[in-house]
Amino acid sequence: MPSYYFSIEGTRTGERSDPATDRLVTLQYQKIDLTTGEPHDVLVIHRAWESSEQEIVTSFYNQFFRPGTSVTQFIPVGLNLDYAYEMLLALFRKYNLSPPTSYELYYQRPRFDLRPVVILLNNGRFAGASLDAFSLKKGEDRHMEKWIEKKEYGRIEHYVREEATRFQKVLQYLSKYKSRLGIIVKETPPSRKSPRTSTPSECPTPAPASPPRSPERPAPKAAATDKPAKRDRPAPAAKPQSRSLLPAPERTPAERKRSPAGRNQLAIHPSAKGAHMKKGSGKRRQA
Questions:
Q1: Chain mean position to CA 172
Q2: Which of 53, 96, 184, 259 is the most buried (most CB within 10 A)?
């Protein structure tokens, strides 16, 4: 689908600018690549000081708006296209050319107006939302009426060419760095095919279920030597600790000659300090 940079320059005939009554000065268009903003052809300028207004409007109408012409043959790309569209409708009616309806012009015919994007980049402010805010060179359209009065047509043409260049520079920049703004086209998911139901003859017969196997203990890794790996053995049980009471005091040589003490006697020896003597006859057995 061919895209064209499109713009109309006009001067007001009353106190305020009105596209229905403004006077046509220039009508220009240029074929461009919408994805990159690069021009594909030279800029065509229809000048009102070289031909009549009726000739310019009729030639443009027969080329792009004649009944039966495809709406995709001319896709306008510009800034504030509403002004250009309203002026075209007024000029078509003025010279008895069958104008398209508002539905055909605004809904059926594709177009790309950069004005909403410029307003968004201007922090949402309508005032000052123009190419001057994003271009090093400033426009001089405010001098248009003075140039026409003085017949300085060279300045008018220079302004028209500079305006087209500035617009394409902004469009090229936005197209090139749109990824920085997070503008990324999502990939289309692959088409999903409906699952195919297999017939009973095509279904494989399930194999009989095998009994579950007991988990095997993994064998230890063999060492680098040729010796067979030793299996882990349980650690020997710890010896039970003795439950004896306090250790008996050492015996004197005289006591050693006597008979050994019985196992059921108390741990505290009679010779130990603080031991109480057992009451009795006090006779000792002879060895």
A1: 22
A2: 53
